[in-house]
Structure prediction request, 350 residues.
Amino acid sequence: MLCMLICRSSEKEEQFKVLVKRLDQIKSLFQQQHKEVRASVEDKETEPLLQRLNYEEEQLQNARSALQEKDMKIEDLEERIEDMKNNEQKQHHLRSSMKEKENENEDLKRIINEKDEQLQLIKSTLKEKQKETDVVLQRVHEMEAQLQKTRSALQEKEEQLKSFKDRVAGEVALSIKTGNTMSLNNPVSKNRLKEMYEDLRIDWPKIKSNLKSNNKHPDSVKELILKKFGEAKTEMRNRKMMIDKVFGLNVINTGGIQQKVDQYRQLTVQNLQMTLYSEKQDVGLKKPFLGNEAVNPQDVLEYLGSECFWLGCLMALNNPPLQPDWENHPPSMDRWDFFPRNIRTVSENE
Prediction:
């Protein structure tokens, strides 16, 4: 619309220029005629010429009025064009502002999308962490339940141990080993422990054959054997310390009282030894290897570890304690030669 108005204004200006040129021509003609008329009047006075002069002056006055009116219209039109130009500038400024706002909105949308992606990533990470936390909490609950069972079992054992002090008086007639006296019917006497250790050494070639055929490393097997004997020794030492605490051996007794307490304490240790021996006999654990039959090597390792721990417990409860003679076991070319030929006595704290 602005372009149309500008075009119309240009046309008006052209028309105005033509009109001004025409008026200039009329003015020149009028001046020429006026001179001629004046010259004619000076020469001769005629009425028609005066009339014509008046008519031409009237026409000139009308033309001047029309020209003034055209000037006013042109000025008004120029003002309107200027206003329209100003409005066009304002509109251009508004369009620029709108474009900037649109760009700002696009930037904000991009930032919002980035933040939303980051938020989704954080939510996903939190969900993974929550899963890990749930797994840890479940393990904690399981461990707490297992700990509670262990505490209950320990409390039960402590109660049983405390009851030993009241029960030993009626069990003195049992066959036990006290000092240098030995019962021939005692299934956990020193001689019987030597026989059980020898049985383990006799079974060792079959165990070794299975482990070697399944590519088990001799160092790891040796470590298992030493570990199980060591764990048995430590656990039995702790149990004997608990028995000492029950009998109050740290309290000084005099006369025959101390001798009785020592006998009852040894009787309790012997009963514990007999209990461990009987538990295995009741279970009747089978050996996991029979001739050439294929056997899972893991079962063989579990059997070996169980035998070493069980026999180590019985040896540690002997009076005095026993253990394989690791120190005097001569080196061999056979990397699988682990078990010493003999067992020896050791002190309580060795």
